[in-house]
Amino acid sequence: MDRCVPRCPQSCKKGTCKEPDVCTCNVGYHLSSDDKRCVPKCTNGCINGTCIDPEVCSCNEGYWLDSDGFTCRPVCNAECEQNHGYCSEPNVCICNKGYRMSNDSKCMPECKNGCINGTCILPKICTCNEGYRLNLDGFTCRPFCNMECENGYCSEPNVCTCNSGYRRVGNDSSPFMCEPTCNSDCERKKGSCLTPDCVKINCDPGYELDMNHFPHRCKSKCHPCIFGTCTAPGTCTCDHGYTAVNASVCEPICEPNCGTGICTKPGLCTCDFGYVFDETNRTCKPYCSIPCGLNKECVAPNECKCSKGYHKKDVIFTFDRSNIWNYPFFKNEFFLRRPFFKKASIAV
């Protein structure tokens, strides 16, 4: 039996023609904008892609589907997001804020004023090279010197350079110091080269210009001040271990007195000829080249004397007259010395 059905001008694919020219779409589809066909429906749309089936997105060329199922993201080199950047469109990497694209297409931290003698490790953060220290401005690294650069500046790590108008004095092993360079007329005019310009210094009465000190200065005047320091005009203050002889000379102190010697340094005696220094008693004592022997003491150079409570006794020798010169005693060179015969009587 024939039946009449509604007619739709175009096919109603993915839907049903329930009334003339009215197409009802299947579940998951909806009419297109021209109401002429059924197209798949993706609830959240398809960013940078096309909805090809209900809730199914197909990404455009150069994009990949994110885990949310509806966002297609551009494809870039893997290093882009690993190095502080993001992919704005296929193969186009944009650096994050505070970073800039380098010549080798990498996102590098940016320090607005650069990092002089250093490296920009994070946005607006510099780290200095070895031997340098960060200045207060936050981007300039200045060289550091362990020594003071007097009248100069630290030009490289542990390298001082003299200021303009100054020159280096001493050598590499001596402390760094620069002195001003003045013309030859400065000293002739009794001036002081305190700066590259010659400066005239007038010392008060009792003071004189110290040319051995730099910069030049006035010092107390004493003539002379031996083994001491001129602490005020005409006042000589003795060094430690010395005592004043007069207003300008100091002499060393030896306690007790050296005796037969001269005190040449504090606590040190230089003994006269024939005397030696006794470390125990800290004085000079006579020296006998031949030990004095039992109950005797050396009382003068090479002169022995009986100790207190003892006296000298004459010695009588008896020899065989026919064989006297064969005795070992006479062959001893010490016996033949004159002092041994002074108080001895020999019976033969």
Give a verbal description of the structure.
- There is one protein chain.
- The strands form 18 sheets. Strands 1-2 form a two-stranded antiparallel sheet.
- It has 348 residues and is mostly beta strands.
- Strand 9 and strand 10 form a beta hairpin.
- The protein is built from three helices and 36 strands.
- Among the domains are: 57 residues; 36 residues, no CATH class.
- It is elongated.
Could you give a short description of this structure?
By secondary structure, the chain is mostly beta strands.
Task: Summarize the main sheet.
Answer: 2 strands, antiparallel
Task: Find the structural class using helix and strand composition.
Answer: mainly beta
Radius of gyration: 56 Å
Distance between the termini: 193 Å
Overall body shape: elongated
Give the integer mean of the pLDDT values.
80
Number of β-strand runs: 36
Q: Classify the beta-strand content into a percent band.
A: 35-45%
The unreliable regions are: 331-348
Main-sheet strand order equals: 1-2
Question: How much helix, percentage-wise, in residues?
Answer: under 10%
Tally of helical runs: 3
How do the strands and helices of this protein lay out in sequence?
Blueprint: E1 15-19, E2 22-25, E3 29-31, E4 38-40, E5 49-53, E6 56-59, E7 63-65, E8 72-74, H1 79-82, E9 85-89, E10 92-95, E11 99-101, E12 107-109, E13 118-122, E14 125-128, E15 132-134, E16 141-143, E17 152-156, E18 159-162, E19 166-169, E20 177-180, H2 185-188, E21 191-192, E22 199-200, E23 207-210, E24 217-220, E25 228-232, E26 235-238, E27 242-244, E28 250-252, E29 261-265, E30 268-271, E31 275-278, E32 283-286, E33 296-300, E34 303-306, E35 316-318, H3 328-331, E36 345-347
